[in-house]
Specification:
Elements lengths: L1 E5 L7 H10 L5 E6 L3 H13 L3 E7 L4 H14 L13 H9 L3 E10 L5 E12 L3 E3 L5 H6 L3 H21 L5 E7 L7 H12 L7 E6 L7 H13 L3 E7 L6 H6 L4 E4 L1 H4 L6 H17 L2 E5 L4 H10 L4 E3 L7 E2 L3 H13 L2
Parallel strand pairs: 1-2, 2-3, 5-7, 7-8, 8-9, 9-10, 10-11, 11-12
Antiparallel strand pairs: 4-5, 4-12, 4-13, 5-6
Bound molecules: ligand C2E and calcium ion (CA) (2 copies).
Length: 348
């Protein structure tokens, strides 16, 4: 049930062995070890995972007995647990109906200031309260919505309900910024600009409190319209955030050409940065770049106390977000979370 593999072997290297294991439909665990560069090890791990192999750990040699022990203990508890079922992806008709029937609900994840831990804003993350299947996550419907011209309706529903929630918080004395995810596909026509301004105006929102997190899953179709909309949003003081920075099309060229004033470093460079030198190098360079560009930096994927400590000590990141601080939650839970978080901050 368990293979400990050195990536560097005589006659057959680790990558080739991984391919054979995949062909044999090996269902046990695999622990990788190597004296090579950490980045090679990381790639071998990705390859093995892409083949559906359960990689329990990847270690640079020499491997300390404690590290091996942790992996083996985890393996022992995981065995016997049923494999997670594949996530169902929904079809266009059902998603369209969900939007119309008001089945989408917003969850909110806190964004806190790194230097003092204060709550500065929330990110809106949509969920689908499915009548039969329960709570459905965005990876099961956003992509289909984007490909089938439903993303405009979806974004509008999410944005309006986020704005109403913003007003409730403001009325109860809580001063926050509110972030909404926007896809490049929302930026195809100037209507979007008008829609945002009008709805924010109706609740008397100062647009400095609105953050639009822009992600791009495909190349821009009409860069001029996109540029025009984004620039005009900035002129109206909306914060524009480049989301998932460092992945996909969230690139340096975009940072150069679009007037972003917030940079969100993707979780893949944040979590474990203290233990992984390539993540750390990319994280630190991104934070440094944000500072030099004079824009706000956000680290997402702060999953554990080590991630949080690393950022606090690095002294170069403005805002943090992640499971260590809080998971996305329904609006009603925010106040109770904030109290619990401030206790955690005081007793740390
Ligand atoms: P995102 O904008 O990068 O949002 C962050 C995702 O990471 C969220 O997943 C969040 O729950 C998760 N996350 C937060 N903290 C941690 C952490 O510490 N570790 C890890 N591993 N993950 C963490 P979620 O809610 O499932 O959303 C997935 C993606 O779906 C979002 O990624 C965003 O791209 C998209 N999405 C969500 N809501 C909307 C929306 O209203 N409109 C659009 N266009 N896209 C949305
Ligand atoms: Ca986001
Ligand atoms: Ca992100």
């Amino acid at each position: 049930h368990l293979i400990l593999m050195d990536c560097q072997m005589p006659e057959m290297d680790g990558v080739e062995l991984v391919r054979h294991l995949a062909q044999l439909r090996y269902r046990g665990g695999l622990v990788l070890m190597s004296g090579e560069d950490e980045r090679i090890l990381h790639t071998v791990k990705l390859l093995a995972q892409a083949h559906g192999i359960n990689v329990l750990g990847a270690f640079k040699k020499p491997v300390a007995p404690t590290m091996l022990e942790q992996v083996l203990t985890r393996h022992a508890t995981e065995r016997g647990r049923p494999a997670r079922p594949d996530r169902k992806v929904y079809g266009v008709v059902e998603i369209e109906r969900a939007i119309k029937n008001g089945e989408l609900v917003n969850f909110y994840q806190p964004k806190v200031s790194v230097p003092d831990g204060k709550l500065v804003g929330v990110e809106t993350l949509v969920r689908w309260q499915h009548p039969r299947d329960g709570l459905v996550f965005p990876d099961q419907f956003i992509e289909v919505a984007e490909k089938n011209l439903l993303i405009d309706d979806l974004t509008r529903v999410v944005l309006c309900s986020a704005l109403r929630q913003y007003r409730r918080w403001r009325d109860s004395g809580l001063s926050l910024s509110i972030a909404v995810n926007v896809s490049m596909n929302n930026l195809k026509s100037l209507d979007f600009l008008e829609f945002v301004t009008r709805n924010a105006g109706e609740i008397g929102m100062d647009l400095t409190h609105l953050v639009l997190e822009i992600t791009e899953s495909q190349l821009m179709h009409n860069p001029l319209t996109v540029l025009e909309i984004l620039t005009r949003l900035r002129l109206r003081n909306v914060t524009l955030s480049i989301d998932d920075f460092g992945t996909g099309h969230s690139s340096l060229a975009q940072l150069r050409d679009i007037p972003f004033n917030e940079l969100k470093v993707d979780a893949g460079f944040v979590h474990d940065a203290c233990r992984n030198s390539s993540r750390r190098a990319i994280l630190e360079a991104s934070l440094d770049m944000a500072r030099r560009l004079g824009i706000q930096s956000v680290a997402e994927g702060v999953e554990d106390i080590d991630d949080w400590k690393f950022l606090s000590e690095a002294n170069s990141c403005d805002i943090a977000q992640g499971y260590f601080i809080a998971k996305p939650m329904p609006a009603e839970s925010l106040i109770a979370w904030e109290q619990e978080w401030s206790v955690r901050q005081r007793t740390k």
